[in-house]
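Render TRAP transporter large permease protein in 3D.
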Amino acid sequence: MDGTLIGIVAFASVIGLLAIRVPIAFALAGVATVGTFVIFAFRTGAFAPERAYRPTSSLVFSNSFDLIHSYDLSMIPLFVALGHIAYRAEITTAIYHAARVWLAKVPGGVAMASVVGCGGFSAITGSSIACASTMGRICSPEMLSMGYDKRLATASVAAGGTLGSLIPPSVLFIIYGIFTETSISALFLAGVLPGLLSLAGFLLVIWIWVKQKPGDAPAYTGEITASERRSAAIAAWPAVALFVIIVGGIYGGFFTATEAAAISVSLAVAIGFIQRKLTLRGLWEALRETCIQTTSIFLIAAGAKIFVAFIALTGVAPDIVQAVTDAELSPVVLMAAIAGIYLLLGMFLDPIGIMVLTLPLMIPLIETYGFDLIWFGVVVIKLLEIGLITPPVGLNVFVISSVVGPSVPIDRIFSGILRFLSIDVIVLIIIMAVPWLSLAIPGSM
C-alpha cells in the first residue's frame, strides 16, 4: 500500500479521534500502531500479518522506551514540582501581592498586577493552565469584589495565564526541544524577550481599556505607604531568586536546564520550610499532583514518539516537502499558512496535542526553507499560547470560568478576551518579522 496515503489517513484518523474526545496519548499510539502494522503486513503486496507483529512491536516499544529514558525529559517533573511547591510555599503569590501594592494607584492596577503575577508564576512553573487556575482563584474574585467589570476581571487573568507557555521554564519548550533535537536551554532563553513583550502588550491592553472606560476598573481609595511597598517587594525575593537561577544560571553557563530545575526545586523546598509556609503535608500534596500531571505528559510524549516514528516510516513528510517546494511558496506565504493551521487547530485541540501532531510535518518544511529551529520554536509556542484563549475551546477561558462559577457567563469572558487576542496577533507578527527578538539572548551565550 502507498505509504503517503496511509500517513494522510492516519492524520485524519487522529484528528477524528480527538474530536470525539479520545485521550491524545491513546489516539496517537493507537493509530501509529495500527498504521505500522498495515505497512509491514502489506510490504510484499499480499496481506501477511505474521510478518508485521515483530517489526510493529519493535517500533512501538523501542521508541517509547527510548523517550522515557531521555535525560531531557527529567526536566518536566522537576519544573512541574517546582510550580506546585512554590505555590504551597506562597512564593508565586508573593509576586502578585507585590505588584498589587505597587500598582494600587494605577488605573486598572489590580488587573495589571494579575498579569504581572501570572508572569511571575510563569517564571517559576511551566504550565499555562496551572498558572491560570492558580492566579484565577486569587485575582478574579478580588477584582469582582472591588467592582471591576466582569470581562476585565476574568479575561485579564485568562490572557495572563498564557504567559506560562512562553516565559521560561516552559513544558511546551521542553517537548519541542526533545522532538526537534534542539537545545532546550537555548529555547528557554529565546522565550524571554517575546514573553516580556507579550506581558507588556497585555498591560497596554488594560491601560487602554481603563482609559476608554474608567468605570470598568474602580480606583483604589486606600493608602499605600512606602514601608508597605518596600515590605511587599522584599517578600517577593524567593521568586526573583528562583528566576535568576533558572535563566541567569543557564545563560551564564553555570547550569544546564535540568540542573537549574533540580537546584530550584531544592531551594524552593528549603525556603518554604525556613519561612514556615510549607508543611510536610503540603509537600506531599505537591509531589502527588506532580506525579499525576507528569504521568499524563509522559503518556502523551510516548504516544507522540511512536507516531513520529510511524510518520517517518510512511514517507509522507518528504512528499509534502516536495509538494511545497514545487509550489514555490515564498517564505512569507509559508509562515502565514503555518500560522493559519496552528490558529485553526488551536480553536479545537489542546497545545501539546497540536504540537506533537504537527511537528513531524512542519520541521522538514522549516529545515528545507532554512529557517532557524529555535526561532520557529518560539513562533510555534506563541501560536499555541494564542490557542489557549481562542474560542470556542480556549482552555484558559474554561479554567477561569470554572473558578468564578456561573456569576460570569463564559461568553462574557470570551468577549473580554478579544482585546487581548488582538495584541497577541500583533506580538506574533513582530516575533515572526523580527527573528532577532528570539535569537538575541541565546545567540549571545
